Amino acid sequence: MHYFFRRGNPPFTKVLLVESGSRRLFDDLIAGLYETYGEQLEIDLVTCYAGVPQGFRGKVFRVTDYQGRDARKRLYAELGAENYPICGVICSGEPIMTKWKWAIAAKLPAKIFVVNENGDYFWLDWGHWRVMTHFALYRAGMTGASAIPTIARLLFFPVTLSYLLLYAGFVHLRRKLR
Fold first, then answer.
1. How far apart, in whole angstroms, are the C-alpha atoms of residue 118 and residue 169?
2. Which terminal CB of the chain, N or C, has fewer other CB atoms within 10 Å?
3. Range scoring the smallest mean pLDDT among 23-37, 83-97, 111-125
4. What are phi and psi of 61, to 5 degrees?
């Protein structure tokens, strides 16, 4: 996350995509990137899926080939040696490669863009903090009409947990005394 506090974007010549969501999203994204930035654009991919997305013609790094701490360090070193100026990750609400995508985003000196389940994207930088905040709140269920029940559940959780613990303690103590 090298460019978090910089508003400018590096040149869009070489991109690492972390396929941490539905393959359908990357099929559309890759076609759109080649259409927008031209055929000279180099796109590489980190994935857990077999095969490659439609229209893809770059290098593939499969996380299944990098099991264990030493192998992960080797993957981070290989990705770092490629000098990617830009990295794209999918945040579509699917629990696919969650730890991998954030570890790669943290370790690579690249500007990160986040793609949601609709194919929309935003840059992960300080200039877009409102978008990031709304995105995080939306994922946590804290926007719109669902915000009030979610906040109520958060507030009543300690009360509910205390009640259940006291009740369980009372029942077990009563059994013990009989």
1. 49
2. C
3. 111-125
4. -110, 115
